[in-house]
Amino acid sequence: MRCDELKAVLEIESASFSRPWTEQHFQYEIDSPFGHPMVALADNGTLTGYLCLKLVLDEAEILDVAVGNSHRGKGIGRLLVQWALDFSREHGASVLFLEVRAGNAEAIALYRSFGFRESGRRKNYYDNGEDAILMEMPVCRQSEENHAV
Predict the structure, then answer these.
(1) Which residues contact 125 (CB under 8 A, 6 or more apart)?
(2) Which partner for 65 in 16, 47, 51, 83 could form a disulfide, CB atoms 3.0-4.6 Å apart?
(3) Which band of pLDDT confidence, cut at 50, 70 and 90, is reported for residue 141?
């Protein structure tokens, strides 16, 4: 994610969330040594989605992810989550965390398809009283998986 892409990112963010991140939130992720924001681009260069990943020591967390309305259902979210998993694995993370709105069945199904499991809940977390589901999955290199005791 680059500064010149923030306008398109903010348009998707505003259309996707009732309490969207601000430009300053995204700028912080771009500037942070722990932030790894990524965008997805169509063949014509149109920004179709984004994911903000934070990696500190051996823990990674997906902080924000969204796909533009007209690009949903095309596998872009799946590609972004796969990128986050691969990046986390390549950079030594042992676990990847995220939180998702309890009513977001599509996102929950996507995360479960990758192997994420519910690890907790934040009751009445969102403005509408909806719970946040905390999810996590172990992230390790294939060779480490094969040598686990």
Answers:
(1) 99, 131, 132
(2) 51
(3) low
Section 100-121 average pLDDT: 95
Question: pLDDT (tens digit, 9 = 90+) per residue, 35-70?
Answer: 999 999 999 999 999 999 999 999 999 999 999 999
Helix or strand run (H / E) with residue 84? helix 76-90
Told to judge if 99 belongs to the known catalytic residues of this protein, a careful annotator would answer yes
Q: 111 an active-site residue?
A: yes
- Neighbour order of strands in the sheet with 117-122: 35-41, 47-56, 59-67, 95-101, 132-138, 117-122
Would the pTM count as exceeding 0.70? yes
Domain extent, residue 55, equals 3-146
Contact (Cβ atoms closer than 8 angstroms) between residue 78 and residue 43: no
CATH number of 16's domain: 3.40.630.30
Count of domains in the chain? 1
Residue of 59, 99, 144, 145 with catalytic role: 99
